Amino acid sequence: MELSNSKTNFIDYLHQFIDCEIDDFKESIQKAENSFTILNLKKNEYLVKEGEICQYFCFVESGILQHSILVLGEEKTSYLALRNTVTSSLSSFLFNKPSRKSVKAIFDCKLRVIDIHTFRDLIKNNKAFNLFYYNLIEKQICLIDDYRIDLLTLTPEERYKKLLLTEPKLLQEVPLHYLASFLGISSRHMSRIRKNIL
After folding, report:
1. pLDDT (tens digit per residue) in 86-120
2. What is the three-class DSSP state of 102?
């Protein structure tokens, strides 16, 4: 794990959540951007291990982070954070408690990170970051709700087809066994689904 200082440019990502052209926000955005530090993770290095405290809220500049839990000794993927998204073991990060999951690099990753003190300062004193975070959490709650409903109402084939439509990058960039675990499907069943659809 390598940490260094550097400017970050995730303004394109912020554009998805706030109007970055508002004059009031321009200075706030620059200050928020300058608050992030680079963290490089090699493949299979952890942002946080289950049972540890998550130290960072991060923007994934390159690579993919896998969120996973162990169930009866088997690793289950609960989320995949791709390039140009933000992620954390949020409950652990916010409340300084042991993480219930591990977050690991499945490829070499370049991350832009802030610690909890910087995060809380931005939330309190930076209007642009505060609005970005509010809109981000609102969007994530809706996505999690949809995902849980899909697990209960869609067949594995339907879940895979929906992923094809909504997250094509996942299918291009993520190894099959991670995707299968994420969708709640065995790797063997996932292979059959892909053959039938292709």
Report:
1. 999 999 999 999 999 999 999 999 999 999 999 99
2. strand
